[in-house]
Amino acid sequence: VVCTTSGTAAAELHPGVVEASHARVPLIVCTADRPQRLHHVGAPQTIEQTNLFGTAVRWSFEPGLAREPDRNWWRTLGARAAAEAIAGAGPIHINLAFDEPLLGTALPLPPGRADGTPWHVVVSRASVEPPVGTAGGERWRRPGMIVAGGGAPPPELTLAVADNLGWPVLADPRSGIRVAHPAVVAAADAILRDPEVRNALAPETILLLGQPWASRVLAEFVESAGRAGAEIVAVGGSLSDPARVVHEFHRVDGSLFLGELASVRVSAAPGWRSGWERVEVAAQGAIDKALDNDPLSAGGRTTEPGTARHLFGALDATTTLFVSSSMPVRDLEWYGGPRANPPRVLSNRGANGIDGVTSTALGVASGQDTPVVAVLGDLAFLHDASALASVGDDTGGSCTLVVLDNGGGGIFSFLPQAGILESERFERVFGTQQQVSVSEVARGFGLPVADVSTLAALDEALGRFVGRQQRCVIRVELPSRTDNVALHERIHAAVIDATRATLAG
């Protein structure tokens, strides 16, 4: 539940509401409003808040001023709001009018139900009988794969199904499934950049679990497989299918679906998964070697791919790793290697924006006792710098902000515009080069700051801050954005060479 005053304070919620809508996060937005008589007459802090969030909310309601004769239906309004948000898996909006003097005392709600249950409950039929039937049974006997994103079912269940089917699991770090297991493929983005490898490892069935990866390469692979005749089945609440190649959407609980599928004792063609296992091992070795030997990372200097890989491998399993949209989530997705007990990974991926990244990370930390390490770029940090003004309380665990400072919007240097536009124009329109000091901004809010340029210094700062400081910033010095693109290309080339050699051997 999030509450605001009226006017622009309510409008400030719009990016968060959009993110919650796309990410299917139940959210109850309560905005204060002025009485109807003060609308359209120039009263201060009064804007038109009816349908303020448009189609981004599942349901909205304006109960008007709270008055004694109406008190009997306020309990049902609260229950309805919760039910609409949970059943709709998204945000709802209640616009609440208040009149002066704004100093009234809240009255008790009318009695609830005798058994203590909510006044309204929404029951989903889909949670009773997952639609996995014999009609589609043949698809599970073909060479296939599981693509797992954020919100996928638990690793143990997903991997048990993968073992039964003899399939690999392409696991996003946000899924919690990027663990040390033969079925897990972490370097999918780099592996699938090579047409020869894509053709050699093309599946006949793809099971999509949870939210989509950020990787465009993987999305194009799924699309091409679907257009070539592979059956694609999506499980979960989201109907994400921008390429329009999914055959079946199963709007059911993913664990129930996999529980049913685990009993289907079938296996893909012998050797199907072993090919994926071999290229994954080769790819991980190539990434390590490329980072160790590259001039940009010589002497343990920090780079964007190297920092993402290092953090995912080094953080304690009790730490929550929060990654920003844009390049941080991609670098973690592309280069975070599998490990025995990975940290929980969270990210705002609903609409792929950088609004409120620091606020979200601080919010996660305020709700738990274990540390949070948030990785974000300098633009995302500066865009939400005002969030640092509200860190004076002592609730929740520690939050360490690791700011990757490349002096602008690094992701745009990967676009064709970077090679077409004249440098000065590109920087002005796309690079958005920053002149503001990340470290000085953080110090201005009274936060401890460490400036690092090597992985060893990063480890020292993490050891000094994580779990020990409530709020702090580590600014990571990076190569230029142009050098960063070149480093990514060298890593991908190394993976292509290694995987081709593995398949040829």
Explain the overall architecture.
- With 505 residues, this protein is an alpha/beta fold.
- Helix content is 36%, strand content 15%.
- The chain contains 18 helices and 16 strands.
- The strands form 3 sheets. Strands 7-6-5-8-9-10 form a 6-stranded parallel beta sheet, sandwiched between helices. Strands 12-11-13-14-16-15 form a 6-stranded parallel beta sheet, with helices on both faces.
- Helix 11 links the parallel strand 11 and strand 12 (344-347).
- It starts with a strand and ends with a helix.
- The model is unreliable at 125-131 (pLDDT under 50).
Q: What's this, in brief?
A:
This protein has 505 residues and is α/β, with parallel strands linked by helices.
Helices and strands in order, then pairings?
Layout: E1 2-4, H1 8-11, H2 14-23, E2 27-33, E3 59-61, H3 74-88, E4 91-97, E5 144-148, H4 155-165, E6 169-171, E7 184-185, H5 188-191, H6 195-200, E8 205-209, H7 216-227, E9 231-235, E10 248-250, H8 254-261, H9 272-293, H10 304-314, E11 320-323, H11 327-335, E12 344-347, H12 357-366, E13 372-377, H13 378-383, E14 399-405, H14 417-420, H15 423-431, H16 438-444, E15 449-452, H17 455-465, E16 471-477, H18 481-504
Parallel strand pairs: 1-2, 2-4, 3-4, 5-6, 5-8, 6-7, 8-9, 9-10, 11-12, 11-13, 13-14, 14-16, 15-16
